[in-house]
Amino acid sequence: MNEKTNKKFDLVVEIRRFIRASLKAWMVYAIAIVAVVLITLAYTFVRKPGTEVNASLILPPETSQNSGMLALSDIASSFSMGDMFGASNIDNEIAVMQSHTVYDRTVRQLGLNINYLEKERMLRTIPAYDRAQLHLSVDPAVADTFRYSLMFIIWPDSKGRNFEIEIRNTALDTRIAKLKDVTLPADIKTPFADFRLEKTAFFNEEEVYPKFLITYDSYNVAAQNLGGFVSIFAPNKKTDIISMSTITSDPDFGKKLLSTIIDNYNWLRNDQLAETQRDNLEFVENRLVTLETELNDAQTAVQQFKEKNKITEPGTAASMLIHKAATLDGQIASTTTYNEILRMTRDFIANPANDRKMIPSMSVTTLSSTETPSSVGAIEQYNILVLKLNEELSRVNTTNSTIETLEKQLSMLRANICESITRTLENSNVRLASMNRQNNETLSKMGTIPELEREYIDLERDVMLKQQLYLFLLKQREDARMGLTKKMDALITLDEPFIVAKTPGLKPKMLAMVLFFFSMVGAAAWIFFRKMPRTPLGSSEAVADASTVPVLAEIANAPLAGINMLRTDLRAILDPLGAKNIMVTTLGQASMPLASELASAFARAGHSTVLVDASFSGQNSVSGTSVAEICAGASGDATKEAAPNLHMIPSGSTERAAADIIASPAFAALVKRLGQRFDYVVIASPAIAEGSGAYALAADVDITLTAVDAHSATPADLEFLGGLRRQGRFPRLSIVIA
Question: How far is CA 451 from CA 325, 444, 445, in A?
Answer without folding.
Answer: 15, 11, 12
